[in-house]
Input
Amino acid sequence: MCKKLSVLASRVSNFRSVMRRPERPPSVIPTSRVLWLVAFAVVWAMTGYGGIAVGQVAGVDDPSDMADSSGDIKRIEAWMDEGNLNLTMTVYGVFAPSVEDTPAGMTNRYYYHWLLDTDNNPATGYLNDEYEGNATNLQTPIGVDLLVQFGWRDGATNGVYAYTLDPLTGDEVELFEDYEYTIEGDTIHAVIPLADLGLTPDDIIAVSAFQEGASNGWQVDWIESFELTLEDTSVSAYNPDPADSAYYTGTWATLSWSPDKAAVSHDVYFGDNYDDVANGTGDTFRVNQGRDINFYIVGFPGYAYPDGLVPGTTYYWRIDEVNEADPRSPWKGDVWSFTIPPRTAYNPDPADGAEFVDPNAALSWTAGYGAKMHIVYLSDNYEDVNNAAGGTQQGPATYDPGTLKMAKTYYWRVDEFDAVETHKGGIWSFTTEGAVAALDPVNGAVDVTQTPILTWTPGLGATHEVYFGADAASLELKGSGNLGSESYEPGQLEWNTTYYWRINEANNANADSPWTGPLWSFTTANFLIIDDIESYNDIDEGEPGSNRIYNAWLDGFDDPTNGSQVGHLDPPFYEETIVHSGNKSMPLTYDNAVGKSEATLTLTSNRDWTVNGVDTLTIWFRGASGNAAEQMYVTLNGSARVDHDDPDAAISTSWKEWNIDLQAFADQGVNFANVNSITLGLSSVTGGTGMMYFDDIRLYPPEP
Output
């Protein structure tokens, strides 16, 4: 039976050029794409994965011909199901052997590849037989459109990704990292959405494979191609009613759907918990009913939820198609949902917390379920609205308050009356034009540095006053300034503390002045931030505010003994896709042909590493597919160096946390009261190249 798989990793479509893997023999990179005529050994099989028919399955066998008792390809198969391309590879011995099970004299390092010729022209495939038993002497084979790799090294995965080739350089261009797979003994089964591969149903592809690894000195085991037409064999119910994610105004509903032609009956799941419905747990399984009964009633006496559906609740449902004569059955359906609107008003316009609202704007909302009349409360005093002072009754779900004051924060709520009872609404707020708007830190931010710089966008004011403190009810006046000086540095703040601030503006040319700004807050971190990479920008050098990352982290530019480069070649110089937290990380390329690659940050603040008893330096890092396994290290004050315990840390393709006991630096004489620099680097092991990303460099105190 084709089953859902047990290992799921996120796919990231970043289409990024990556470096060569260091374990390969020296590469001969073609300067142009070379196409070869392929001799197809087409084998059609209807046995499918595990011996069960799964639509159109194609595969081909390969004889045992390698010295290692594991990893020698026996058979590959491919088919399409539920919009996914399924790929299997079966080997002689064990697909992913443990280090202990690796034969004496062999190295536990295996790289398996499915080769996909995806351009609907199998004639552009690659003639594989000349590499059988030999090393490729190429970084990757040429003449195919896409390669899916599964790497296994030292008893763990090592390079699970798909890539294509740059037609000019021959370099790998990574398409996505990780995919869904399961390994059972001698077989791997991978499942990849067609969209991730750039494929669509009815495409014709050619599939072949090869395996190479250090266990056999990079001797290659090739398997010839077969052709596969991508025919979708998925089975699922469709056309849900109510439509997926719809609002439904009723306390009972008839759920209906269109059945798949393969279904003999339907399993119905229904409940108000998504996970329970998705997993079929709890009491969400309701009934199995015949093919011609493609509806189910909920919320009506005698059916599911006999007391009725509850306003303000989202319900989830799923239909599994069943045909006991088919071993794939049941086919798990998608989880659909619908929401019974709340009895209170919702969807306010302006949105809750909106800024720079037109003082002449009308207010609107979506009426609560069953509402016959609305009572609107509006004031610039929160307590008045909370205590229902005043109030305007009306029929339509809109309210025109007239012209409001500028640069004011207003609070409002709408209570709904359904002819039986009144349902109190939540309190929303908005700020009219002319008020200042917070930029950094954003309102409600957490893990903020203890030495922040507060900035904002001015409103109509020509001057401003800054109020700041840890008590929202009694903020202190901290300073004032003229238009153009919209920043304030509060100095060293306490750890893990919430602070409040507001900006009052004045303009003598406006009769409504002065304006009291909205109250904002942020909470400082419970750790010391050395560099979170968030402060860097792409402003031209020499211009006010310029803070380019390569000017802070000094790399190997103009240094022939340092093979590093901080930042991308073109803006944005920081990385904004591959990040650990926030919006940015630091990219660092390395080329250790010169012996080392490192970058150094000179500390201008947070040089005292004794505060709050901090004892652990934490650095988040990740590498890229194809990185050389060079030794990663960190150095303080230019001399005290600590190496990462894992010599292969640089080849990790997921974010890793590196925790370093500061005692390791203290033993080398570092004065933690005055740490003046930190260096991140990779020293040469193979003289290889690669790309690293660093983020969230922090100091933590002992755990309580």
Summary: The chain is about 5% helix and 40% strand. The helical segments are 194-197, 274-279, 382-386, 549-552, 663-666. The longest helix spans residues 274-279. The chain has five domains: 16-229, 238-339, 346-432, 437-526, 531-700.
